[in-house]
Amino acid sequence: MTRDAFYKEFRARGGVVLGEPTPPPPVFKDRVVVPGGKIERVSDYVALLRDLAALTPAEALAQFDLDEAGYLEVAGAWAAAMDTDPTVAKSISAGLAKR
């Protein structure tokens, strides 16, 4: 049972929960972050991260037509984008949280 589900049930039975409720998960907005890059959109980068977690690195990179050098280029471009704009990391987190 999640914390939110517990609180909901607890409140339904007349309980009072002190403190702030858990904030809702961030809303995912797909957008172009690295224009002209091999992986431009947040949704594509999230898909790459999910594939890297589930598949072997070679299989995951092949899904995006990348080799090691291409992956290093993509990772560098996205790291620079996250350093420049903190909302990029939030967008990625929201995309990873979305099922």
Number of separate helices: 5
Percent helix range: 55-70%
Average pLDDT over all residues: 92
Rg result: 18 Å
Largest sheet: none
**Based on helices, strands and strand pairing, what is the structural class?**
mainly alpha
Give the ordered list of helices and strands. Answer: HHHHH
N- to C-terminal distance: 18 Å
Overall, the morphology is elongated
What does this structure look like?
The model has no long low-confidence stretch (mean pLDDT 92). This protein has five helices and no strands. 60% of the residues lie in helices and 0% in strands. The longest helix is centred in the last third of the chain and has 17 residues, at 68-84. With 99 residues, the chain is mainly alpha-helical. The chain has helices spanning 3-12, 42-54, 57-63, 68-84, 86-97. Helix 2 (42-54) packs across helix 5 (86-97).
Features:
mainly alpha
Brief synopsis:
The chain is mostly helical and about 100 residues long.
Layout of SSEs?
Elements: H1 3-12, H2 42-54, H3 57-63, H4 68-84, H5 86-97
